[in-house]
Amino acid sequence: MRFEGNGAFFAQIVGKEGFFCGVKKTLISVKVHTIFELKKILGHREIDIAVPHGSNINGLLDNMVKKWGETLSSSLFDSEMGGLFSHIQIMVNGRSISFLNGMETVLEDHDDVLILPPAGGG
């Protein structure tokens, strides 16, 4: 089995097409872009991540948190209120998920996902 890209961690578990929890899954590749603090956590400005076909933003973020752990989770999610911090903006192919289906926005193969933390300054 050959692994490609920085996001091949999920493909390592199930293969490009394989069985996961007894169900055949076809994986899609999503390119995640980010900046600032999130770039430091992920180690790169852009990463390719493999997720099961039919995954949404919630599923993508769940897979990312499994790989990068509490450091990423605490930067994205409000543990007291639950859910994504309101200051985190997510775009799919240049469109804000707030104009799509929010966290339930379904991803397609080769989608570009931009996760923007707040930018401060003055």
How would you describe the overall organization of this protein?
It is built from 3 helices and 6 strands, in the order αββαβαβββ. Strands 1, 2, 3, 4, 5 and 6 form a 6-stranded mixed β-sheet that branches. The protein is α+β, with helices and mostly antiparallel strands. Strand 4 and strand 5 (95-96) form a beta hairpin. Helix 2 crosses helix 3. It is 27% helix and 28% strand. The model is unreliable at 1-20 (pLDDT under 50). The protein is globular. The longest helix has 20 residues, at 57-76. The protein has one domain (9-116): Ubiquitin-like (UB roll) (Roll). The chain starts with 8 loop residues before the first helix and ends in a 6-residue tail after the last strand.
Tally of separate helices? 3
Low-pLDDT regions: 1-20
Number of strand elements: 6
- List SSEs in N-to-C order: HEEHEHEEE
Domain unit count: 1
**Alpha carbon gap, first and last residue:** 50 Å
Q: Which oligomerization state do the chains in this entry correspond to?
A: single chain
Helix coverage percent: 25-40%
Q: Describe the sheet with the most strands.
A: 6 strands, mixed
Instruction: Label the structural class.
Output: alpha+beta
- Rg (CA only): 14 Å
Q: CATH superfamily, please?
A: Beta-grasp domain
CATH architecture: Roll
The residue-averaged pLDDT reads 84
Please report the first level of CATH classification, the CATH class: Alpha Beta
Task: Tell me the strand percentage band.
Answer: 25-35%
Structural topology:
Blueprint (H helix, E strand, L loop, with lengths): L8 H6 L2 E4 L2 E12 L1 H7 L3 E7 L4 H20 L12 E4 L2 E2 L15 E5 L6
Parallel strand pairs: 2-6
Antiparallel strand pairs: 1-2, 2-3, 4-5, 4-6
